[in-house]
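Following up on my earlier thread - several people asked me to post the actual chain instead of describing it. Fair enough. Here it is, all 143 residues.
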Amino acid sequence: MAEINPYLILNGDCGAAFDFYRSVFGGEFTANMKFSDLPGDNPCSTDDESKILHVSLPVGRGTILMGSDCPSSQPPVDMGNNIMLSISPDSKEDADRIFAALTDGGVAKLPMQDMFWGAYFGMLTDRFGISWQINFDLKQAAG
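Reply from S.P.:
Thanks for posting it. Predicted structure:
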């Protein structure tokens, strides 16, 4: 069964927020990347280098709280549009099926594709204005 996890988008204080969440919930980050970690063909602005590209903190039984800072190339987020739902399907085929279904009447923001962190990944906004990330861990397919 696929998992759905909350994904918070913040305006430059994602690192501080997630340090706080870790102090509240305990545990360790399973990912903590900055925009400066992007591969050479994906340069970021100097304003974004120290911002969080992606952070993950396991919380409770199977839930992962994830987040990112909004890059300076995008308008700042407002409360209400700073949350995405991240779904982790069981297969690449299931990822494609879910992406196609959620995109029906919605808008694909990033088509499903292999990404540098070892996932098959895409982003979209559904017909109701809800933002989604679909992330299939390619190591899961190999294992």
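The chain has a mean pLDDT of 89. That should answer part of your original question.
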